[in-house]
Design brief:
Elements lengths: L3 E6 L10 H4 L14 E9 L2 E8 H8 L3
Antiparallel strand pairs: 1-2, 2-3
Length: about 70
Amino acid sequence: MKSELVEVCDFDPRHHTGGARAVQGKCSWHGSTCDKEVVASALVRDGGGETWHAVCRRALRALEATR
């Protein structure tokens, strides 16, 4: 299953309880390869269920294309 964007909201660290990178306001979608500013929290659904990610503008654009 391909990743699908479910919901987007302003960045809120409370959504990101499972990932230290996201809680710190760093892009959890691209991981350690991305130092861009986080612009939103995005709920993403894939084969493993739903997960909140802290996303940079580039990640958000890519996820919005899945809608």
